[in-house]
Fold this sequence. Notes:
single chain; alpha+beta; seven-stranded antiparallel sheet; four-stranded antiparallel sheet; 12 helices; globular
Amino acid sequence: MEALRTPIFPSSNLSVLPTRFLPTRSYDKPLLHFAFNPSPNSPIYTNFSKSKPSTPRSSARTSTESVDSHEEEKFDWFSQWYPVAPLCDLDKRKPHAKKVMGLDIVVWWDRKESEWKVFDDACPHRLAPLSEGRIDQWGRLQCVYHGWCFNGSGDCKFIPQAPLDGPQVQTSKKACASVYPSAVQNGIVWFWPKTDPRFRDILMKKKPPYIPELDDPSYTKSMGSRDFPFGYEILVENVMDPAHVAYTHFRIVQAPQGKADREGGTPIDINVKRLDMDGFDAEREHAKTKFIPPCLYYTCLESPAIQSNKSVSSALTKEESSSPDHVSTRRVLMTLLCVPVSPGNSRLIWANSRNIGLWIDRIVPQWIFHMRLNLVLDSDLYLLHVEERRIMKVGPPNWHKACFVPTKSDAHIVAFRGWLRKYSGGQLDWGAEFSKALPPTPSREQLMDRYWSHVVNCSSCSVAYKGFHVLEVVLQILSIVLIGIPTAINHGVMRSVDGRITVVSMAVLCFAASRWLSFFIYKTFHFHDYKHAFC
């Protein structure tokens, strides 16, 4: 999925240089550093932070000794902000069901407070899903099982079955819906996975990671999401891996120049600069990357224009940027949010921004971009699904023993697995109440289904899907009507032979077009199998 960073149009395929990262609002305090010193012979970790002495290591894998020496430092998975959905894919007229960290939640628009709210997706009456409800005429969330209504604070405002002159049972705390803290940032709804009232103002103490470019009007902002039948750890690994692009996405994503083989594989020099509880920073040629747990991974590409001294700087100051000799820098930023849904399931929310080629997004509908992105995602989906099951057999904490990762191109993945092993025992902590068993493997068509994993939740693709279906029906009706015209010809309305041939030809063309459109709809919005052997 590193291929998602490759611009779709040739005009956006730039020669780029590294840039520094803009600070995030959530991490304005000093970051914690831990000792992660490899052996000098290790090709991957030569640039890790060396703030503390540690035991030398003989390979790129995380040492057990280093992990055990810091057991007191553990990442709290339920004390973090999680992205739920992009605003562009949420309809204010209805509630939306989502699952994050094994929690069933409902997202809905509170007209009174003009805010997106996130509730536990269970009515306190009989635990029916509130996401199957509606927004009533007063802007309240209504459970359609018995009509109970809730305001944005979770208070029950109306119980139809309660007598007006009887006890005000709707005022009971037991009648309230469970509310999660929520926020909107960078055009994405986030939530805090704890309903305890103590966390009501958690946004004042800790904010979701912030990407300035996503709110900058001089940048484009293209967003989307897709659900996957493999887990969070596998998704994070994949989006961090640039080495698989030339092979898994062969002939979908253009390979770099200077090929080592037909597909374009080549050594990739990735250096991890910092790794601690708050994630890690890394850089490679033409790119700098950052991982902020639990969800954010982004890459910034930059191509500075020639300045007066004919040199290129990757760390321009504000004064230099505003000087008359400096020409504005061209940037491409890919933000990837990897959301843990449940064991064996995950969600990717992507946000593509750039300050070049803005006209492309103004004239090209988003579903066209998504059509190509879905093809990229499909091309490694089955591989990742199988990989996860094989890792589960050996046990996620034993990943470093089962996998051989000798080159620097795997530095991102090794750093992530090292972080996961050090701060979370090698795997995501789902809590005591959630089973870690993986769901059964479905058929290939269900595994790679696009409709339920993306189209039904995407505003652009769902509109295109409905539009193409209408066009298909129109073409079928038109072909039937045209075929019926010869009947009128027999009654003397049309006697010309050329006219008959023209009408029949048009009917055949309309029918053929409807069949081709049906095939296009299925391949684009439902299922497109990918056979690597024939690429």
